[in-house]
């Protein structure tokens, strides 16, 4: 008892500094990781940008430091994700370095054992080197999609990129089962910026002291083996993070709890939950196809229409007059839902998703089968793995067309084929549960990570 208290106190005496990327899909896993490491006895400091700042009030056990990111209002509201991330990687260099060196020289705080940053913050490796601080990386995507990003130079050299319409359905033998249309491209004003951002992120990840994954071995075993060949640094698949604690509180938008009260009125496994995450956007035509597909499927649906989801509209204005009345109680539309609670609700029977990695993993964790409609980047790789490798979803291969949507919803929710997909989803959920238990793969990997971080602490002593 005495010993364990002593160990706990020793651990408390060291601090980790975490630097999340200010996007919802990146903030959530970084703050979950922070909670996991705090529960293991480390003190936590979060450095964050003013832009999309997390709410410190939700984490009274952490210390927060905000840095100016230099973004103008127009720059902060751009729809060009790559332009935004490239700019942040330049404008944050000086403020981040200043903040970190101040923390390192602050004698009233515990010594800092290690910096953990999002992989996309590539400039932080040079800063860490200059301050002689080990840097570890959290990559918030799947391992499989990271391998596809890591192959960008090869894909470009071999003519797969830029993507040609005539090759969309061709397979990419080096990245099976991916097809050309699944390659993780993100559209931007200047395609060279996309390429540079990810090539730098990959290079500086390779130069880091280790790589943490919100994934688990049973899900991505062969991708992890392949990754190790090319990235001879310690790898720690310790996910799914969202299963360590009952709820997460890093949402940038308010959760509409009417989602849950509405689900309470529905029969078990009958509802299709529809949400495309925090960034994806669509045109009015696509939105209308979606609305009619949902309406015609005759299944109850809970639909997240985020303000900004439909380009040029505030919210639901483009729906035809009388549409909502026609749906009646069969559909419920909200601006933002408590997604994890929704997926865990007994009435939820399917998830129509854009396959952001958090959504994909949250669905896997609850054993909810998916309909996949990826928009950009890693989502395309995730969707292919969900539908073809793990067999826990159906992919809408031809974009948004009401007839195909209606058929796909019915295939998943009503037909025999859907039962089989649900069975596999439940099997995968059981694997996700097991990996976190004593002796499970992620449990062991987390123990190794704690040991590894503790070895940095010992360096500080010498
Ligand atoms: C982005 C990228 O688009 C994605 O491809 C990448 O894998 C991570 O970063 P995003 O599009 O927002 O993320 O999707 P996702 O990764 O699924 O993250 C969304 C998060 O918001 C999830 O944790 C989800 O639970 C939460 N969410 C979503 C809500 O809390 N409420 C909602 O209504 C919708």
Automatic annotation (TrEMBL):
Domain of life: Eukaryota
A Pfam family hit: UDPGT
GO MF annotation, one: quercetin 7-O-glucosyltransferase activity
Coiled-coil region list: none
Keyword field: Transferase
Stored InterPro entries: UDP_glucos_trans
UniProt similarity note: Belongs to the UDP-glycosyltransferase family.
PANTHER family assigned to the protein according to its UniProt record, in alphabetical order: GLUCOSYL/GLUCURONOSYL TRANSFERASES (PTHR11926), UDP-GLYCOSYLTRANSFERASE 76B1-LIKE (PTHR11926:SF1464)
Name under which the protein is recorded: UDP-glycosyltransferase 76B1
């Amino acid at each position: 008892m005495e010993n364990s208290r002593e160990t706990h106190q020793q651990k408390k005496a060291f601090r980790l500094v975490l630097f999340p990327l200010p996007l919802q899909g990146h903030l959530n896993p970084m703050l979950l990781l922070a909670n996991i490491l705090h529960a293991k006895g480390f003190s936590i400091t979060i450095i964050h940008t003013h832009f999309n700042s997390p709410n410190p009030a939700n984490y009274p056990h952490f210390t927060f430091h905000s840095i100016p990111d230099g973004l103008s209002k127009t720059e902060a509201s751009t729809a060009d994700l790559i332009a935004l991330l490239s700019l942040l990687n330049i404008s944050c260099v000086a403020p981040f370095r200043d903040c970190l060196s101040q923390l390192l020289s602050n004698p009233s705080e515990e010594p800092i054992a290690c910096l953990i940053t999002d992989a996309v913050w590539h400039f932080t490796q040079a800063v860490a080197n200059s301050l002689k601080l080990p840097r570890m990386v959290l990559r918030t995507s799947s391992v499989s999609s990271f391998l596809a990003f890591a192959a960008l130079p090869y894909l470009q050299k071999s003519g797969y990129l830029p993507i040609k319409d005539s090759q969309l359905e061709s397979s990419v033998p080096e990245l099976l089962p991916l097809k050309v249309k699944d390659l993780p491209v993100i559209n931007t004003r200047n395609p060279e910026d996309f390429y540079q951002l990810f090539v730098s992120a990959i290079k500086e990840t390779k130069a880091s002291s280790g790589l943490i994954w919100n994934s688990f071995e049973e899900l991505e075993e062969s991708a992890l083996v392949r990754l190790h060949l090319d990235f001879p640094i310690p790898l720690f698949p310790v996910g799914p993070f969202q299963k360590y604690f009952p709820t997460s509180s890093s949402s940038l938008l308010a959760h509409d709890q009417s989602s849950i009260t509405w689900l309470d009125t529905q029969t078990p496994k009958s509802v299709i939950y529809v949400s495309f995450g925090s960034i994806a956007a669509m045109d009015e035509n696509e939105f209308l196809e979606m609305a009619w597909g949902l309406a015609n499927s005759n299944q109850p649906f809970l639909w997240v229409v985020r303000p900004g989801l439909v380009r040029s509209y505030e919210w639901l204005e483009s729906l035809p007059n009388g549409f909502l009345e026609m749906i009646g109680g069969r559909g419920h539309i909200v601006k933002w839902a408590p997604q994890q609670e929704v997926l865990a609700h007994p009435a939820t029977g399917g998830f129509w998703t854009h396959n952001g990695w958090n959504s994909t993993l949250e669905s896997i964790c609850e054993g909810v089968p998916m309909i996949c409609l990826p928009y950009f980047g890693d989502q395309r790789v995730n969707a292919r793995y969900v539908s073809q490798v793990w067999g826990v979803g159906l992919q809408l291969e031809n974009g948004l067309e009401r007839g195909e949507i209606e058929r796909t919803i019915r295939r998943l929710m009503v037909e025999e084929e859907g039962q089989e997909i649900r069975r596999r989803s439940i099997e995968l959920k059981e694997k996700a549960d097991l990996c976190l238990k004593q002796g499970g793969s992620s449990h062991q990997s987390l123990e190794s990570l704690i040991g590894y971080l503790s070895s940095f602490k010992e360096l500080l002593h010498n």
